[in-house]
Amino acid sequence: MQKAKKGLEAFILVETRAGKALEVASRLKKAPGVQAVYPVTGPYDIIVHVAVADLKSLASTAVDSIGSLPGVQRTLTCIVIGNPGEPLAG
Question: In sequence order, what are the residues at sequence separation of 6 or more whose Cβ sits closer than 8 angstroms to the Cβ of residue 40?
Answer without folding.
Answer: 46, 47
